[in-house]
Amino acid sequence: MKSSVLRSSLVISALGVVFGDIGTSPLYAFQAALNASPETSRDAPLGVASLIIWSLLAIVTCKYVLLVMRADYEGEGGIFALLALLGGKDPPSRRLRLPFFMLLIMFGAALVYGDGCITPAISVLSAVEGLKDFAPQLIAFVLPITLAILLALFAVQRFGTGPLGALFGGIMLFWFVTLGLGGLVQILQAPEVLAALNPMHALGMVAHGGLQTAFLLGGVVLAVTGVEALYADMGHFGRPAISRAWHCIVLPALILNYLGLAAIAIRHPGASREGIFFQMVPPGIPTLLLVLLATLATIIASQALISGVFSLTAQARDLGLLPRFLVCHTSSAQRGQVYLPVINWYLAAACLLLVISFRSSGNLAAAYGLAVTATMVITSISFGLVVVWVWRQPPWIGAGLTAILLCLELPFFLSSLLKFPNGGWFPIAIASILMALMLTWHKGRALIRAQMLSSPCSTQALEAELSSGRIARVPGTCVIVTSNPEPRYAIARCFEWMRRSGCLREKLVLLSLVGTAESRINMEERLKVTPLGRSLWHIIAYHGYMQVSNAPEILIEASKRMGCAIETNDVFFVLPREMVVEYVGTEMPVWQRKLFGVLSRNMSYAPDYFFIPCTQIISFNWMLKA
Predict the structure, then answer these.
(1) Of all residues in the chain, what percent carry a pLDDT higher than 70?
(2) What angle separates helix 199-208 from helix 212-220, to the nearest 10 degrees?
(3) What are the pLDDT digits (tens) for 205-240?
(4) Contacts of 475 (CB under 8 A, 6+ apart)
(5) Kind of pairing, strands 527-533 and 536-543?
(6) Which of 172, 230, 242 is closest to 10 using CA atoms?
(7) CATH of domain 2-367+370-423
């Protein structure tokens, strides 16, 4: 009984987080596709509905729910899960393939940021535009109301979603029931629309559409733009819950609704080119209620994507692809609920700018879809590699699956390229900026690590220096903190500290706080304590990308394995701040050097990141040449 209740609660919760984006697509997807249709006859709504329905079945159901979601890494999904899988233990030809596909997956992750700018803007704007159907004189208030809602949405991010999380699933369940019932009512008035379930209508429209078909597919793809969320949020709810929610609730509701919208277009061809979604209900109060419900649904959909961007940034940071940002945990019970102020307000500025620039959901639809389809293509290619290199299947199976998936998605991607001049450049520009940031940070830190190791920094050299008597020893414990698992990086920092201070505490701990591609690691498996000499230890503390590294807590747990008592009040953490003051090589062009300098100066303070009390910190600037 309890297990069935738990499964049901997970299904409802998944509705509020996973399916917000794809669930609010009927607000604008059918309208955009119909406006781009090459036909003006009664067959046009049937063809559009058929294309959308079979796209949902082929891409969402077959590709993601049945195939891609099986490629999980320790239960986690998303594009970084594919990176973790492809970087697994002992893959063949790893040196040849990993850098290229790492870049490919990094670009796919960067595209999510571009999507994250457009989704809140188009979702909320399309919902508020329903006010025009309730009272045409309110058209002047659509933009101000949209901007106010978006600004409020980003302003409350610092409080977290915990207090409202229980409501999200219920509201989205009511939304999907409304979609299904609204569509069913329209179908009963025009039952001939059921012919759209025949895929021949979709194929016929594509075959006879000519060049206009490219614009049509650019509108149809809007119906599947939230598909990556199914995979990315798999770790929160599990594949069974997401699959049940899709098959039992979301897919039937969407099919009924798109058929209902086609029925409206058939019955009222003259009035079907604008505001078709809100024609599902009678004018007046019912329209106003539908506008309010749609606005709530789009806010929830936007919230889910914003939270996803926060999580993605935290994952990239822990994988060493981005510098440390200030991370605020908004829930004492759920560490995964995070708030990144810098990312939040950059995202808010981009969304508000998009609304002001494009001014309508129809114009925004012309810019939407390119980033999503590019991410879908990258996911398909990466999944094919996982099938061959990770699951050890014959190459022809991986190549065959990839070819089938690309046959489905490349037409959408190529048609979305036509949107580039009309605003499709915006998410690509955002992704390119993020890609430049990740590559610059990754490369700059690699140069710094190489410079740090340019002088002798072996365990033997450290032991020889400590036993030479040249360094005065004082009571207490000194912890040299680094984020690299190899002890020589901490030893290099230790030598620099001894050079500056001329003394060292009696107990010396080299603490490596290492982020991994795994989501969570148990404390028993996180710590690796290695004695290096008398009163000298090296501790490696791993943490998953959904966890934090609390250095004092880790030290207390490690002391139980070290065989000695450590007084936490008599511990000092040494955290040098490496800074590049001169570039002697040519590995980084001038623009990249300047960008790396900006990133280094603006990354968050390490003690805050590792939860080290300010009274136990010794920090200094370490000037390096690279």
Answers:
(1) 86
(2) 140
(3) 888 777 778 888 888 998 998 888 788 777 767 788
(4) 505, 506, 570
(5) antiparallel
(6) 242
(7) 1.20.1740.10
Nearest CA-CA partner of 360 in 102, 130, 184: 130
Q: What is the dihedral of CA 81, 83, 87, 92, to 10 degrees?
A: 110
Q: Residues 6 or more apart from 55 whose CB is under 8 A from it? A: 220, 221, 223, 224, 412
Q: What is the DSSP letter of 534?
A: T
Tokens matching residue 112: 């999510």
Give residue-wise pLDDT tens across range 432-477: 998 898 888 888 888 777 777 777 778 888 888 888 888 888 888 8
**Are 154 and 117 spatial neighbours (Cβ–Cβ below 8 Å)?**
no
**197 phi, psi to nearest 5 deg:** -70, -15
Per domain, the residue ranges of the chain are 2-367+370-423, 458-625
Q: How far apart are CA 561 and CA 564, in angstroms?
A: 8
Q: What is the mean pLDDT of the chain?
A: 82
From the list 485, 547, 528, 481, the residue with the least C-alpha distance to 509 is: 481
Q: What is the pLDDT of residues 501-538, one digit of tens each?
A: 888 888 889 998 887 756 677 777 788 888 888 888 89
Residues in the chain: 626
